[in-house]
Amino acid sequence: MKNELATLSIPMLDEEMGQQVKRYVDSLTVPQGSLGRLEELIIELAKMTGEAFPEVSRPGVIVFAADHGITDEGVSAYPKEVTEQMALNFLNNGAAINVFSRAIHAFFDIVDIGIDADIEAPELTSRKVRRGTRNFYKEDAMTREEVNQALEIGYERAQKMIEQGAKCLILGEMGIGNTTASSAIISVISGKSVESLVGQGTGLKSEGILHKQRIIEEAILLRKPIPDDPIDILMKIGGFEIAGMAGAMLAAANNRIPILVDGFITTTAAVIANLISGRASDYMFVGHQSAEPGHKTAIELLGKEPILQLGMRIGEGTGAAVAFPILKSATLVIKEMATFESAGVSNK
Ligand SMILES: Cc1cc2ncn([C@H]3O[C@H](COP(=O)(O)O)[C@@H](O)[C@H]3O)c2cc1C
Ligand SMILES: O=C(O)c1cccnc1
């Protein structure tokens, strides 16, 4: 494994800065505590960044795209070709994440980390580990080397975006079949039944969900992933984009860059990142809770509260990008508001 990941030592949160910013928030011209959750967000940001006036702009969005061999078992409502087609859509600025990324003036990077197609496009970051994972109903999804390679690619892309100036990182994914891999991973880590976690993904009907559940249950019995070994889990039932996002999150945490986590698949990557390095989740916010049933459990494993509940179930990083203006608003409060003293407003 590359140096950064092997020797990773994520910094501790700056609790003192958190206290200092809390006192400052109390001096702003609002009734004490009236900013509600925004107050918590700003204090968290202060602890993460160690800054009295944390910045989250410009954010960076990195979308990792890859295919899944498990789609051979008929676990998605859409064909796997959609992964490649959507990657091209991202490059043509026509996808939902393009719209939301533009709205928040984000840096944008789309990474082919394992699409099962050869794509010639100069704007695509080509880092294909392999043309899709292997079908984990029949064999391990990846080799250990492939897992490490995908983690490193994620780490490298995030590092690059941070060097470009990104102050907050949003990870997104595109990979037909990836709610199957995510449901399997969250079931293994949480110990909860597949039945309680599995959902429609792109839009399976009840019979399809039942089939998906059975495939996942049998695959877990066959592959026997080790619940507290994130590399073993990725190797046996993971995905290239999930490993890539986990690696990117580790880079962000290591650089004290706040991470805004998106939906079920992204949160699964966050849980994996946190198993690799226990302090990773200190640097995470969860942007929204998606309609996919397993997302609630994944968020609980991180010990977080989602910012939004909009019933979205897309992925791509969309829910996080939509939540970003709320995080940004929190930073503006302390940057731009007057204090009781500076404005000459009577305090109680
Ligand atoms: C047109 C289209 C755009 C998407 N954008 C994200 N996803 C989402 O759906 C997929 C996961 O669902 P499942 O496990 O059921 O295949 C992922 O690619 C995820 O990013 C999409 C899916 C489709 C069809
Ligand atoms: O929660 C998500 O990110 C999600 C849910 C369903 C399908 N694709 C993504």
From TrEMBL:
Alphabetical list of NCBIfam families matching this protein: cobT_DBIPRT (TIGR03160), PRK00105.1 (NF000996)
Catalytic activity, as annotated: 5,6-dimethylbenzimidazole + nicotinate beta-D-ribonucleotide = alpha-ribazole 5'-phosphate + nicotinate + H(+)
Domain of life according to the entry: Bacteria
Name of protein: Nicotinate-nucleotide--dimethylbenzimidazole phosphoribosyltransferase
InterPro entries linked to this entry: Nict_dMeBzImd_PRibTrfase, Nict_dMeBzImd_PRibTrfase_bact, Nict_dMeBzImd_PRibTrfase_N, Nict_dMeBzImd_PRibTrfase_sf
Lipid biosynthesis in keyword set: no
Uppermost EC category: transferase
Pathway this chain belongs to: Nucleoside biosynthesis; alpha-ribazole biosynthesis; alpha-ribazole from 5,6-dimethylbenzimidazole: step 1/2
Free-text function comment from the UniProt entry: Catalyzes the synthesis of alpha-ribazole-5'-phosphate from nicotinate mononucleotide (NAMN) and 5,6-dimethylbenzimidazole (DMB).
Pfam families for this protein: DBI_PRT
Record EC number: 2.4.2.21
Family: Belongs to the CobT family.
Keyword Transferase belongs to the record: yes
Swiss-Prot/TrEMBL keywords: Cobalamin biosynthesis, Glycosyltransferase, Transferase
Residues at the active site: E316 (proton acceptor)
SUPFAM superfamilies on file: Nicotinate mononucleotide:5,6-dimethylbenzimidazole phosphoribosyltransferase (CobT)
UniProt-recorded Gene Ontology molecular function terms: nicotinate-nucleotide-dimethylbenzimidazole phosphoribosyltransferase activity
Gene name tied to this protein: cobT
